[in-house]
């Protein structure tokens, strides 16, 4: 008996388990909205932390002067300067530089890492010239985008909860990361200070709002995922009376931790069990770039074990976690050729898998199933946020133009994912309302956004 036949039932079962029909998406959107409320009511009240950003004045377009941004969120840090010219001149000039962080700084002491960053910043600041000009008597102000879990304590301070993403730096956890950076800058003799500490989704919202007053939500879909939105202070019970001048603030949802009503498979559960944070970040593990390729790999491995789809034996490379990455499955899905040549070579080069046409087309279907589920669930999450805002103030969102600013490598590079996401939003909202909801890419808005937040929270205003 040929084992080949058994690949098809695995695919059929996968498609069934990953299905995202409208009622399921509705349920996810509703659950997102109610988890948001629970997280706003009390700390620890929900999967969603609903963290206060302390950003309560968004860029207006009137910002003027020279500001810096520093972005630390992975194996690189980026520094940027921008000269702002107010409503008329807007962004007069920007310059940026990217510096990669050598391994030993990721495993060393806090002082070493921050000294390395401060010296990179010092070098960058030295080359300031041309169109960039700091009024005399001022020190340079920085917006600091720090994409690790932080308990924010004010617009310019926050305690590091823990390092993630492969960083194991000693002596920072429990400390104010802004103080760490300010001290390192002092040690370097660098005349700069941090005016705003921001999460990357908050930076994206600020950067997009600078150009468009209708931006209310920002979503990052990259290696991981997160979302933030503009909330009324009156709708945040856990705040208990702290007031901002505008009556509004940005809430960082940390929505990657959402877990309600998701259609999960045995592959998701096994991947979660094998992860460094089992039971955590379930939404992130279903929709973000770090995981989509890995879920596909686990399905293909099962097919290789239970059928002879890829030949008689299981290709050894396919058994290695994370060999198949999201950019690989994306590239396979762009292959429109009759013989799926590109799919074949990616399978062979990346996973050591030999394939015939039938196997290749099954692989593409597996990719599509996982990406469709991811994109549609991300869309349902966005609708959940919009729905929560609309329920609180009728007409605020659905009665006018509303913009959701998107950024991150997954959203930017994966056309099918983007289409599935938009499709779910349209399905859920209906054509009339969804015509008013603009989901748009805001490329690298978060760097400029952080500099803009340094400007709107400047010590000199
Ligand atoms: P990060 O989220 O790490 O700060 P990015 O926003 O640039 O950085 O996202 C990088 C992620 O985007 C990668 O981990 C990968 O999952 C995804 N990605 C990058 N390129 C592609 C691509 N061509 N197709 C699909 N996904 C991609």
| Number of strand segments | 13
- What value does the average pLDDT take? 94
User: Strand arrangement, largest sheet?
Assistant: 1-11-10-9-12-13
Quick one: biggest sheet?
A: 6 strands, mixed
**CATH top-level class of the largest domain:** Alpha Beta
Shape: globular
Query: What is the C-alpha radius of gyration, as a whole number of Å?
Result: 23 Å
Number of helices: 16
- Which sequence of SSEs, written as H and E, runs from N to C? HHEEEHEHHEEEHEHEEEHHHHHHEHHEH
Q: What's the helical proportion of residues?
A: 40-55%
CATH architecture designation of the largest domain: 3-Layer(aba) Sandwich
Secondary-structure class: alpha/beta
- DSSP strand content: 15-25%
Low-confidence stretches: none
Named once each, the bound ligands are: adenosine-5'-diphosphate
Return the domain count.
2
Within the CATH hierarchy, at the fold level, what is the topology of the largest domain? Hexokinase, domain 1
Short overview:
The protein is 45% helix and 18% strand.
What features would you highlight for this structure?
five-stranded mixed beta sheet, Nucleotidyltransferase, domain 5, binds adenosine-5'-diphosphate, 2 domains, Hexokinase, domain 1, alpha/beta
Task: Describe the protein's architecture and organization.
- With about 450 residues, the chain is an alpha/beta fold.
- The protein folds into 2 domains: about 1-50 and about 210-445, Hexokinase, domain 1 (3-Layer(aba) Sandwich), CATH 3.40.367; about 55-200, ATPase, nucleotide binding domain (Nucleotidyltransferase, domain 5).
- Helices cover about 45% and strands about 20% of the residues.
- It contains 16 helices and 13 strands.
- The strands form 3 sheets. A 6-stranded mixed sheet has the order 1-11-10-9-12-13, with helices on both faces. It has a 5-stranded mixed sheet with strand order 4-3-2-5-8.
- Strand 9 and strand 10 form a beta hairpin.
- The longest helix has about 35 residues, at about 355-390.
- The protein is globular and about 75 Å long.
- It starts with 6 loop residues before the first helix and ends in a 5-residue tail after the last helix.
- The mean pLDDT is about 95.
- Bound molecules: adenosine-5'-diphosphate.
- Adenosine-5'-diphosphate (ADP) binds near residues 73 and 74.
- Keywords: ATP-binding, Glycolysis, Kinase, Membrane, Mitochondrion, Mitochondrion outer membrane, Nucleotide-binding, Transferase.
- Belongs to the hexokinase family.
């Amino acid at each position: 008996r040929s084992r080949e036949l058994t690949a098809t039932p695995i695919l059929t079962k996968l498609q069934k388990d990953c299905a995202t029909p409208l009622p399921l998406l509705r349920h996810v959107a509703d659950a997102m909205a109610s988890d948001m409320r629970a997280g706003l009511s009390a700390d620890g009240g929900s999967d969603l932390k609903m963290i206060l950003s302390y950003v309560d004045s968004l860029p207006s377009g009137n910002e003027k002067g020279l500001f810096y941004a520093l972005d630390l969120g992975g194996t690189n840090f980026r520094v940027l300067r921008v000269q702002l010219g107010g409503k008329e001149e807007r962004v007069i000039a920007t310059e940026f530089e990217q510096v990669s962080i050598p391994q030993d700084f990721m495993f060393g002491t806090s002082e070493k890492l921050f000294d390395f960053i401060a010296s990179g910043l010092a070098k960058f600041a030295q080359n300031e010239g041309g169109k960039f000009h700091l009024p005399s008597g001022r020190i340079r102000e920085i917006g600091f985008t720090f994409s690790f879990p932080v308990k924010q304590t004010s617009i310019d301070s926050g305690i590091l909860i823990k390092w993630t993403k492969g960083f194991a730096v000693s002596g920072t956890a429990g400390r104010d990361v802004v103080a760490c950076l300010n001290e390192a800058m002092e040690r370097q003799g660098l005349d700069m200070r941090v005016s705003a500490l921001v999460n990357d989704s908050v930076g994206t919202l600020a950067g997009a709002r600078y150009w468009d007053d209708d931006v209310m939500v920002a979503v990052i879909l990259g290696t991981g995922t997160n979302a933030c939105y503009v909330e009324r202070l009156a709708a945040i019970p856990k705040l208990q009376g702290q007031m901002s001048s505008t009556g509004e603030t940005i809430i960082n949802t940390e929505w990657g931790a959402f877990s309600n009503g998701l259609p999960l498979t045995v592959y998701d559960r096994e991947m979660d069990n094998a992860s460094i944070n089992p039971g955590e970040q379930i939404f992130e593990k279903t929709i973000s770039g770090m995981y989509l390729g890995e879920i596909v790999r686990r399905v293909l491995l099962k097919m290789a074990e239970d059928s002879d789809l890829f030949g008689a034996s299981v290709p050894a490379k396919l058994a290695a976690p994370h060999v198949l990455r999201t950019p690989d499955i994306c590239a396979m899905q762009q292959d429109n050729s009759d013989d799926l040549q590109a799919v074949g070579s990616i399978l062979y080069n990346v996973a050591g898998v030999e394939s015939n046409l039938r196997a290749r087309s099954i692989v593409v279907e597996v990719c599509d199933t996982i990406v469709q589920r991811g994109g549609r669930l991300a869309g349902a999450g966005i609708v959940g946020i919009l729905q929560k805002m609309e329920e609180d103030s009728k007409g605020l969102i659905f009665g006018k133009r509303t913009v959701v600013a998107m950024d991150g490598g997954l959203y930017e590079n994966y056309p099918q994912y983007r289409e599935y996401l938009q499709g779910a939003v349209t399905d859920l909202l209906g054509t009339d309302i969804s015509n008013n909801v603009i989901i748009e890419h805001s490329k690298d808005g978060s760097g400029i956004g952080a500099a803009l937040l340094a400007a709107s929270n400047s010590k000199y205003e």
